[in-house]
């Protein structure tokens, strides 16, 4: 799927029979819809105007829409990603192949050297630190999160079976926590979580724009200081 680089609130949730794309109203018709390849449209892509505000609302809306698409069963995989992560579109089939049928949520993990080579160095450091911290917190929850894997929390893409979509639809967070905290809630409900490595490379334009940029360094710092405690608290709540 072609990226919509300037629109960070677009959400794509797909399944084998089609796709749903939810965009903020101000972008619809001007940017995001124009960036969708014709091939995706030909395969049944549906574009929906976002009814709420922000990325979390788009995720909730897209999950609800995707779960109701024709031919979706309880076990259908719904795959979430930001549209700018174009390389991930090519990775989903491999990431979801050969899984134990008991797995209900998949969290892809960026492998090296692609991660380090294709990301701004500041983001590579901050997200490795954030992942390490959250995984350490989860490792301490030996009873409520038994057999919980180490995750690439800060990557973003994830997949869940349609029968587990309610964990994301019902969660009321308003930021990136709306992607991450429901993973913990699903695990506590008995859903098996899988960490799946992928050889993902970010778009080179992203690294060129962000590396050495004070504004983007501040963004990474905000994620560590604002987002990480919210997710850690959810992990420790059990």
Briefly, what is this?
By secondary structure, the chain is an alpha/beta fold. The protein has 11 helices and 7 strands. It has a 7-stranded mixed β-sheet with strand order 3-2-1-4-6-5-7.
Structural write-up:
The chain is built from 11 helices and 7 strands. It is of the alpha/beta class and 238 residues long. The longest helix is centred in the last third of the chain and has 23 residues. The protein is globular.
Give the uncertain stretches in residue-range form.
1-12, 23-33
Strand content: 15-25%
Indicate the percent of residues in helices.
40-55%
Radius of gyration (Å): 17 Å
Order of helices and strands: EEHHEHEHHEHHEHHEHH
Contiguous helical run count:
11
Trace the largest sheet across and list its strands: 3-2-1-4-6-5-7
Category from helices, strands and their pairing: alpha/beta
On the 0-100 scale, what is the average pLDDT? 84
The backbone outline, from C-alpha atoms, is: globular
Distance between the termini: 38 Å
Give a quick account of the main beta sheet: strands, pairing sense, barrel closure: 7 strands, mixed
Q: How many strands in all?
A: 7
């Amino acid at each position: 799927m072609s990226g919509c680089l300037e629109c960070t609130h677009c959400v794509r949730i797909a399944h084998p029979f089609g796709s749903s794309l939810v965009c903020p109203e101000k972008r619809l018709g001007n940017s995001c819809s124009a960036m969708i390849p014709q091939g995706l449209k030909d395969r049944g892509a549906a574009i929906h105007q976002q009814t709420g505000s922000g990325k979390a609302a788009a995720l909730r809306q897209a999950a609800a829409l995707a779960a109701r698409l024709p031919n979706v069963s309880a076990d259908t995989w719904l795959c979430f990603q930001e549209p700018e992560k174009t390389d991930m579109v090519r990775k989903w089939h491999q990431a979801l192949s050969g899984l134990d049928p008991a797995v209900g949520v998949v969290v892809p993990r960026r492998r090296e050297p692609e991660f380090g080579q294709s990301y701004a160095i500041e983001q590579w450091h901050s997200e490795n630190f954030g992942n390490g911290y959250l995984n350490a917190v989860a490792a301490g929850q030996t009873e409520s999160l038994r057999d919980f894997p180490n995750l690439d929390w800060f990557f973003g893409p994830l997949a869940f079976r349609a029968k587990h979509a309610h964990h994301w639809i019902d969660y009321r967070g308003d930021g990136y926590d709306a992607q991450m905290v429901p993973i913990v809630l699903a695990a506590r409900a008995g859903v098996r979580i899988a960490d799946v490595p992928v050889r993902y490379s970010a778009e080179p334009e992203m690294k060129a724009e962000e590396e050495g940029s004070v504004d983007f360094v501040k963004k990474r710092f905000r994620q560590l200081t604002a987002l990480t405690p919210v997710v850690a608290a959810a992990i420790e709540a059990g």
